[in-house]
Design goal:
Layout lengths: L3 E6 L8 H5 L5 E7 L2 E6 L4 E6 L5 H11 L3 E5 L11 H21 L4 E5 L6 H13 L4 E5 L1 E3 L2 E2 L6 H10 L2 E5 L14 H20 L2 H4 L4 E4 L6 H14 L1 H4 L15 E3 L5 H11 L4 E2 L15 H5 L4 H16 L8
Parallel strand pairs: 1-5, 5-6, 6-7, 7-10, 10-11, 11-12, 12-13
Antiparallel strand pairs: 2-3, 3-4, 8-9
Helix pairs in contact: 3-4, 4-5, 6-8
């Protein structure tokens, strides 16, 4: 049985000195302080994360994928690289650098990797143009953040052309939380990652539903990270809000939010049998794709282990492990044979 992991992150081995190039800071640089390891550091000196060579070496990734019987990884950048706060043309420059790197890996190992680009969402015109370029250089779509700036959630009218372009190009869209709301109150216990990320994803799904994105673009193929975050557990409350206060909720889309369950994809990264079982009943196995968050510690260390350990029917496991991913990517399994 195939395994296609739709949620993995990658960086180039070396990053340019963006601060010197653009004349201002806030960007990530890599400090290769010892063999096979590097520190991700903001250029003001703030430590962000330690990474190992499986975060940049395609060959190391293939070795680990073989050990875990993962046939294909979908590559996307580390979300801190989105840089939506940067000047749009600078963010475009950075995006193009990252996208060209991923495209090179996919071109070198087309049976093992699929690529998603990143785009400067703070400027929708530039974002659309880079999305078009991503598709031309062999990527299958883009990864975007759960919001762009403070007043631009994904349902913002200004962002609609990006989704419209994705639908027109038949591009896959992967939504990943970043810059978590309320993190100024989450200094301890790793809470931005444990609590903030699921909340961000629920915010993104609700914004796209209530903003009418799924209603206007029924062919748009979007997948949300981390099992859809807290959205699946909140659907009753969300629907009740729609029914009890439509004057506040249904101002851009008057359809019941429950209508859109099954209109988008989620990954399987929930770390809990009962939650995964709930999600299969909630949205259907054909809309859940294996996602591991490789190569980071909050991910599933052996991709697909939870799915394989459960007593799902064979057809459900096939959906979860690779068939749903193929549908989201609009690809055939023969592409990797």
């Amino acid at each position: 049985m195939y395994k296609i992991d739709i949620h993995t992150h990658i960086l180039p081995c070396e990053l340019p000195d963006w601060k010197s190039k653009f004349g201002y800071g806030g960007f990530i640089k890599l400090d290769h302080h010892k063999p096979c390891c590097a520190r991700m550091i903001k250029d003001d000196g703030t430590f962000f994360r330690e990474i190992e060579d499986n975060c940049w070496s395609a060959e190391k990734r293939i070795q680990e994928c073989d050990a875990h019987q993962v046939h294909v990884q979908v590559l996307s950048t580390v979300p801190v690289m989105f840089s939506y706060w940067a000047k749009p043309k600078d963010a475009l420059d950075l995006s193009m650098f990252l996208n060209d790197h991923i495209a090179e890996i996919v071109q070198k190992y087309p049976k093992r990797f699929v690529g998603l680009g990143t785009i400067p969402m703070q400027d929708p015109d530039l974002a659309c143009k880079e999305l078009e370029r991503c598709m031309k250089i062999g990527l299958r779509g883009v990864q975007i953040g759960s919001h762009v700036v403070d007043d631009w959630n994904l349902g913002a009218i200004s962002l609609f052309p990006v989704f419209e372009t994705a639908a027109k190009l038949n591009a896959s869209v992967f939504v990943h939380p970043w810059d978590m709301a309320g993190q100024e109150r989450m200094h301890r216990y790793w809470l931005p990652w444990l609590v903030g990320m699921p909340t961000e994803t629920a915010l993104a799904i609700c914004s796209m539903i209530f903003g009418g994105v799924f209603e206007k673009l029924p062919n748009l193929r979007v997948a949300f990270a981390h099992g859809g975050g807290s959205f699946p557990a909140l659907i009753g409350r969300i629907e009740h809000g729609y029914e009890s206060r439509p004057d506040l909720v249904a101002i851009h889309n008057n359809e019941n939010p429950r209508k859109y369950i099954g209109k988008f994809f989620i990954d399987s990264l929930v770390h809990d049998e009962e939650v995964l079982r709930y999600l299969v009943n909630f949205i259907g196995s054909e809309k859940i794709a294996l996602g591991s968050d490789y190569p980071f510690p909050l991910g599933e260390q052996v991709p697909g282990k939870l799915i394989e350990s459960m007593n799902f029917p064979q057809s459900v496991k096939e959906n979860l492990l690779y068939k749903s991913a193929l549908e989201w990517l609009n690809m055939e399994v023969s592409s990797f044979q």
